[in-house]
């Protein structure tokens, strides 16, 4: 598998979730830098990680932004130097290209938050950067910025380790430190000598704490953490393998190397380790803007949406609390009588705050009602809710200059009559036809011939149903005394047909 294909495979495996914060902190503690620099017009601040393999840089960039850069003298190697003794092996002094991931002040906020309480070696630099980030866009904080710049610069030069932070040591952190500063050594002659090592010359105390944490390994005369024992090497691999990125392929190959006695398989695994350690990577997607950091951009969108929702929730809570305080005696108008002018102003204010209809729309709707438009047609033409049109029609919504008339409550008889779509004379005709044993469809055809298209088959069936259930269909107020007496006679005749 080529380096490009392997990088894609690793990136895909980390797309859903970034590496563990302790892993990234361990990697930066080993091969990274937390910086505050002085430039002509101010300061630069952020994180930088230098590596010969870009897989770790691409994964961190995908989730946390930044850009991958290099320089011409660091990125001009194309031809690999091969071992003269073994043609298929890369020479151990084969010089590889170097790449930097730089995440600066306009982007590192998410990474800062993610790595909180994760660093051990560079925790003080992290704290300085965190404080600097709060001031980065403030103009009148030059002295504070200068102080943080000097502190961070000093900390990057002085090799002091605050032992308080050693309590944060965990297997994820060790995995990150091993990926950055670790090494897998195999003697290529007899394959009998091998070891795993981690180097940390400036902060040797952390190596002793790794020995205590793991319960195996040793610190040799070069002040390096080393594991020589085969069983302990396998133990270490099983602990760190699932967190590794840069040395993942090496560790998988070394694991197979340790588990087999077949000399050919051992040689194959050695060649994989040798290739992973020394092959030159040529990376061309430098200084990209948004391409390659889709996870970071998605996080920014979600963060912005979350902040917006939180603001809305807080605003609603504030309004709710104010509203509660203004109830009853808490309201400055409590107990005061309102003039008609004030009531009108309040009505206008409430309507506007609730997105009510304007006077122009009310007048237009009234005109359309007078011109014979149906409610559904007005709804479609004016894009108004049906209930709003009904309320305008019933003068429940009026213009701001108008006085609202007190509407008397309708009796049940008036409500029923307002809903009816057939007049009393036509109801009498329907009853007569039912007495003559006409079917509903025959009665409907009769009315169609009479050009009374407002009468439907459902209306005719409802009349029959109400007659059968002894429900009142025509009210005395609708007819003359003679006609109403004729109606009651018809009801009796219809009842007799049911017996």
Any idea of the CATH class of the largest domain?
A: Alpha Beta
Describe the strand arrangement of the main beta sheet, using strand numbers: 1-2-4-3
Number of strands: 8
What is the fold-level CATH name, i.e. the topology of the largest domain? Endonuclease I-creI
Largest sheet: 4 strands, antiparallel
Strand residues, percent: 5-15%
Average pLDDT for all residues:
87
Identify the CATH architecture of the largest domain. Answer: Roll
CATH superfamily of the largest domain: Homing endonucleases
Distance between the termini: 95 Å
Helix content range of the residues, please?
40-55%
What overall geometry do the principal axes of the alpha carbons give? elongated
Kindly provide the radius of gyration, computed on alpha-carbon positions and rounded to a whole number of angstroms. Answer: 43 Å
Please give the count of helices. 21
Order of helices and strands: HHEEHEEHHHHEEHEEHHHHHHHHHHHHH
Strand pairing plus helix content: what structural class?
alpha+beta
Flag low-confidence runs.
none
Describe the protein.
With about 500 residues, the protein is α+β, with helices and mostly antiparallel strands. It has 3 domains: about 5-290, Homing endonucleases (Endonuclease I-creI), CATH 3.10.28.10; about 340-405; about 420-499, no CATH class. Helix content is about 50%, strand content about 10%. The protein contains 21 helices and 8 strands. It has a 4-stranded antiparallel β-sheet. The chain has a 4-stranded antiparallel β-sheet with strand order 5-6-8-7. Helix 18 (about 425-435) runs parallel beside helix 21 (about 480-499). It is elongated and about 125 Å long.
